Amino acid sequence: MVDTTPLTQAVDHFADRLRAAPQSRLQRGAAAEALALARELSGWAQREEAPGAEPREMPDAGMFAAADQILVAAHDLAVVLDSDEQVAEAVRRVEEARQRAGV
Fold this sequence. Notes:
By secondary structure, the protein is mostly helical. Helices cover 74% and strands 0% of the residues. Helix 1 (5-20) packs antiparallel against helix 3 (66-80) and helix 2 (23-49) packs antiparallel against helix 4. The chain starts with a helix and ends with a helix. The relative contact order is 0.26.
């Protein structure tokens, strides 16, 4: 079993930062960046679970739901990852998205 703790810690930190961010920061792109990450991670998880099937796109539930969406997507992904390299790649993507979001 792969230790996905680094991924869950990284995404928990990002989600906490989003929840603490002012609405103006969310509107300036932080929420959009989080939604893009949630969609990316969700698609990755779906491709791992059902190779060859077309992944469903995570809907835009609004800027105040962005933190929850990245948590759900990352936790779904954590269940299907099967190597330390995949975990490291997922953490890298979360950290890059957090930096682009400016939170």
